[in-house]
Amino acid sequence: MGASKADFFSEEQNEIASLFKAISHPARVAIIEYLLKVDSCICGDIVNELPLAQPTVSQHLKELKNANIIKGNIEGTAICYCLNPETMKKMENYFSGISKSLNTKCC
Amino acid sequence: MGASKADFFSEEQNEIASLFKAISHPARVAIIEYLLKVDSCICGDIVNELPLAQPTVSQHLKELKNANIIKGNIEGTAICYCLNPETMKKMENYFSGISKSLNTKCC
DNA sequence: TTGTTTTATCGTAATATTGCAATATAAAAA
DNA sequence: TTTTTATATTGCAATATTACGATAAAACAA
Fold first, then answer.
1. Given CB 3.0 to 4.6 Å as the disulfide criterion, which of A9, A100, B42, B65 pairs with B26?
2. pTM for the complete prediction?
3. pLDDT of residue A104 exceeding 90
């Protein structure tokens, strides 16, 4: 069909999948790395950093916000974006948990 | 358009994006978590664990293999799958690197 | 008020992904 | 050999994503 059969998987599996789906596009990786590079909130400016039109960037920012990967604070005409440390930690923990319980003698 | 404008992003950004794209689907998250749960190579058996038809599972396994997230060893008629510890570590490191250089006083 | 700036939304075309039936392939068993 | 078992590939329909022009909305300046 094309739609994922989300109903057949656990809530947690669907959550993890959509969290990583948010960073499964190079534009969104670029946004994350830009926010990391400037090391502060960025008001405006993101559109000029990417080789994409403004509506497209806005759409990618919306997806990152929905996934809780970035936070956006309204500052007058502009919006201040920054990374959400908690979500970064959550994703780190997902993999460190896997690494810990991995039997490396396998295969 | 629909296609991502991959040419305009860095090699590294495209790599990171396709790595996480591999775990952006609940079926592939379920495969990872099943391999983790059994804590050993699994020969066959994966198809029966998922609510999907055999060709669909095969397709998901192929994507996980292409992303180096799982390894598959042929064992006669069956194929032994297990997680790739190096890729797990790589993904963990991506986020721990972000967490480390994150200015948490922001926003 | 009007104009400017910044971000969001709508509508839609191009492309990608998902899922599966049918079929193919490959190795072992009978 | 034929049959069985396990996995892969092909082809296609249904759905999702990506990208952007046009437009809207919101805040501020003049």
1. A9
2. 0.91
3. no
Does A79 lie at the interface with B, CB-CB under 8 angstroms? no
Spatial CA neighbour of A98 closest among B73, B37, B55: B37
Q: What is the pLDDT of residues A4-28, one digit of tens each?
A: 766 789 999 999 999 999 999 999 9
Q: Is A33 on the interface with B (CB under 8 A)?
A: yes
8 A C-beta contact, residue B27 and residue A4:
yes
Query: In this model, does residue B53 exceed pLDDT 90?
Result: yes
Nearest by CB to residue B107, choosing from A6, A71, A99, is A71
- Does the beta-carbon distance from B23 to A40 stay under 8 Å? no
Which residue of chain B has the CA closest to A31? B13
Closest CA to A41 of A68, A88, A75, A64: A75
